[in-house]
Amino acid sequence: MAMEFADKIRRLPSYPVAGGYGESGPLARLASNESPFPPLPGVVEAAARAIAGANRYPDPSSGALRTALAERHGIAPARIALGNGSCDILLAVGEALLEPGAELVYAWPSFSIYPHLAAASGARAIEVPVDGAHRHDLAAMRAEITVATRLVIVCNPNNPTSTALPFPEIAAFVADVPRHVAVVLDEAYCEFNLEQDPEESVELLRRHQNLMLLRTFSKVHGLAALRVGYGLCGSDELPRAVDQVRQPFFCNAGAQAAAVEALKHGDEVTRRVEANLAERLPLESGLRALGLEPAESQANFVWFDVAMGEDAEEVEADVVAGLAERGVLVRAGAALGRPGALRVTVGTEDENERLLAGLREIL
What we know:
Helix 3 packs parallel to helix 10 and helix 11 runs parallel beside helix 13 (349-362). The protein has two domains: 41-262, Aspartate Aminotransferase, domain 2 (3-Layer(aba) Sandwich); 266-362, Aspartate Aminotransferase, domain 1. Helix content is 38%, strand content 15%. The longest helix is centred in the last third of the chain and has 24 residues, at 266-289. Strand 11 and strand 12 form a beta hairpin. The strands form three sheets. A seven-stranded mixed beta sheet has the order 2-8-7-6-5-3-4, with helices on both faces. The chain has a three-stranded antiparallel beta sheet with strand order 9-12-11. The chain is of the alpha/beta class. The chain has helices at residues 7-11, 41-51, 63-73, 86-97, 114-121, 138-143, 167-176, 198-202, 237-244, 253-262, 266-289, 312-325, 349-362; strands at residues 28-29, 80-83, 103-108, 124-129, 149-155, 182-186, 211-216, 229-233, 301-305, 328-329, 331-332, 341-345.
């Protein structure tokens, strides 16, 4: 007799991970929105010191990191959720809030982990299409909120479309969401958003107890391999519930120490954002020269169609495969909600030139 699994195993989609992790050689890894810059030496040293004591469990309260984040953003440590990357926090939020009969609202295409929340809990997912400019349609999302809605997620800047909404629109939407609905403003790429200071949205927490700002050290800080994310919350209610549904010791000692040290280097964050912009602009110009029109990016990646119509997914697959043969790894849009599109991380000047040269040959 075969083993019997829970119904949610049949519902849960597979997360579309990028390939190439086992490959060696001079690959242009432009598929996962990672930073092309390694962690700062001081950050590596801090992690190494923590790992030297790896025979002991990490601080289960992540006290030093909570304190550092609280001082940075001016909120109480008890109102900060920490996790093994921002995905860990998202999944815990879903487990804490959702159940059969409840509803979850988010835009689509958006971050690929969002469908997991409803599938794991048995809640109903309502996916609201992005508009013609690949941006969230907040009015349409608001219209979908009912008494059954428990959670609304807004990804700003949005992954995978790279677009961002102006802060006044975000603030007005959050103010209009009923108090019984938790709002997660997913800001994994907020440091790259040139239209908004990352601290601007923190002010919303003083007015909205149902709000969480979700952020990560994986992107601009270059700590993707260590997996540490955090949520800034309008009250201590949601962080407490998030911690309740998870295993203990969810944030390892090396990640905690590295994140604390990374917070001390704000100038380096600014430099990396400037470097990203310096490479993104010529990349976008190069794409337009090939007849490709990227969405208006406020992130460290770009989003554009290589084909439309019935054969879009087939063309996209051929382009992705052709680029991979040339040592350039990108993300296929079909797995992210839009067949025929590509999501490409902004890399170094050499990596971006390899991408453009490959597209020129293939197209």
